[in-house]
Amino acid sequence: MNEADAIEVGREAVMTVLTMSVPVMAIALGVGLIISLFQALTQLQEMTLVFVPKIVVVFTAVVVLLPFMLATLSGFMEKLADRIIGLGG
User: Could you tell me the residue range of the domain that residue 29 belongs to?
Assistant: First the structure.
């Protein structure tokens, strides 16, 4: 394994992490934006109003997106295992 292969594995790992985390982060961003707009319109500045709904929605999003995340991570691991096997022979 040379430097190019190591960089490629690192790049694939970063892309896998981004692929798995971006949907959840986008959902959290959307919920935060909606709550912020609601707070600005009503002039209600309660801190728990931000965190509790966002935590519930992010937890729900993780549970709903778990099959997708597992398939993505499993595909990456299969590619990585194939590379490791290819190094031996």
Answer: 3-88
